[in-house]
Write a structure and sequence with these properties.
single chain; 258 residues; mainly alpha; 2 strands; 75% helix
Length: 258
């Protein structure tokens, strides 16, 4: 394991997204702020309650998921595609770096961006809702898992994509629809049949429920809601599968070597 190479790539990835903070950090935060502002003043949401909590507290975990996942996925996918188009990927392939070193650098940088956006989202949420009930260790662990999984999905997307149009297919046509239909703004079990059952095929429903459970004080190792336990299991399975696929693709040089 070449830790110096991995550390160098990690530092490069962090500097890359910090070099354009308006695009990589400020932009997503403005979008999240608009959600809070709109729903804070929406007539149907202003007096709505969920388990005696304000409606904004209900949607906060979903917005946190969307911000962290989107930031991590776009970081790795865009970084790898730019390296493929502009040529620096050749330097990485000829350097004494294996698949694990490449993943540590790429995924670590993406997780740093995702968790930074998550922390800023939590700080923003504190302006609108009370955060005293949050189980912070559980919330951080779940957010880190989300960042890890979607950073790896970004690696796979970046390896597969040949253009920015293809990179944008995943967040636009997969992540966003699954997130918006995943119970961020409503309770899935209140949907009419058969949509309530069909929604349970969406893994984001359970991931958001896990984040929501941590937001309302349930530790991962306690007797929290069943959907939260399922969400944690889904994240762990996705982490294992995406790790295996990413290592396999990198070792075979998928779309990297002629």
């Amino acid at each position: 394991m070449n830790f110096i190479a991995a550390k160098t790539l990690l530092a490069k990835e962090i500097k890359r997204f910090l070099r354009v903070p308006g695009q990589t950090v400020l932009g997503p935060l403005v979008s999240t702020l608009l959600y809070f502002l709109v729903f804070a003043k929406a007539p149907f949401a202003e007096h709505a309650r969920w388990n005696e909590q304000p409606y904004l507290a209900f949607i906060f975990p979903g917005l946190l998921f969307l911000t962290v996942a989107n930031g991590a996925l776009l970081n790795t996918s865009s970084s790898i595609l730019i390296s493929k188009i502009q040529g620096p990927i050749v330097d990485l392939l000829t350097a004494p770096m294996g698949a694990l070193e490449l993943l540590l650098g790429w995924v670590g940088g993406a997780m740093a961006r995702g968790l930074l956006l998550g922390a800023l989202t939590v700080g923003m949420a504190a302006l609108f809702i009370p955060l005293s009930s949050i189980h912070w260790l559980s919330l951080f662990f779940l957010a880190a898992l989300v960042a890890y999984v979607f950073a790896l999905l970004g690696v796979l997307t970046g390896l597969w994509a040949d253009s920015f149009e293809q990179v944008n297919l995943v967040p636009t046509f997969f992540l966003m629809p699954m997130a918006f239909l995943g119970g961020i703004f409503y309770e899935v079990h209140r949907l009419p049949a058969p949509f309530d059952s069909l929604s349970l095929l969406n893994p984001v429903v359970f991931i958001v429920d896990a984040l929501r459970a941590a937001t309302f004080g349930h530790p991962l190792w306690g007797h929290g809601p069943s959907n939260a336990c399922i969400g944690l299991c889904i994240l762990l399975v996705l982490a294992a599968l995406s790790s295996f696929m990413a290592v396999l693709c990198l070792r075979r040089g998928y779309k990297l070597r002629a």
